[in-house]
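Appendix B. Chain record.
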Amino acid sequence: MPIEKVHFHEVGAVDTIVDIVCAAAGAEALDVDRWLSSPLNVGSGTVVCEHGTLPVPAPATLALLGDAPVYADGPPMERVTPTGAALLRMLEVSYTKLPAMRVVKTGYGAGGRETLGQPNLLRLLVGEEAEEATATESIAVIETVIDDSTPQVIGYVSEMLLAAGAWDVYRVSVQMKKGRTGVQLTVLCSPERVPALSDLLFRETTTIGLRWRMEHKMALAREFVEVETGWGPVHIKIARLPNGDEANASPEYEDCRKIAAEHSLPLKQVMQQASQAYAALNKERN
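Structure tokens predicted for this chain:
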């Protein structure tokens, strides 16, 4: 379509064009990975436009918002305009609760209209997302007790469970009825892996019954850095508290094991040098 035939209809006013251009420039300058918003208070009542008096939210606003979660609260007024809805759509906003994050910057935009009982403000937070130490996720626990199998079979099955997607597998010696000694095999996994791992236990062991339950897992946020040793690179796993402080740092076992095997070194020596390299790296940073 030729540019001279483009018609902005009711969004052709200077203030609307300024809003769009400045919002686009600001979004570009912030250079964030993704945009999140709480559900939108769209307001209520009516608004007068060229087509007459229309209900709030206006039809164009609803069309632009798509499946965004909305609600109406406070005195009757238009709280999300078509321009605002278009900007939200442009930014591909996701609607969710405020995630765990380290806030880097905050900003406020004030509207010119007086709103009874509450400030007419829009707040923007810019931050780095991080897991909370108290954040929880669902975890499935599968348990079975076996008293008629060899240690080799139990070890073999444990490796199979880990290869099949279990988060962890551990064994505990237990005393059963009639003085029998057995092994309690416990599997930790995501809930969706329960059927497959249960089938594996029935197929590969002598158990004829098991039990499983849902629990909640708490974990610190984790990250990895690579350090150089005299024999090659090793990854250091770092756990952080919600405020960003380091809680633990440890060399990755598989990296150290590979170096120890390739160079015929004691594993503890490789792990010690990796820890020393990380301490030196921290000292340089500080």
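Further analysis of this model is presented in Appendix C.
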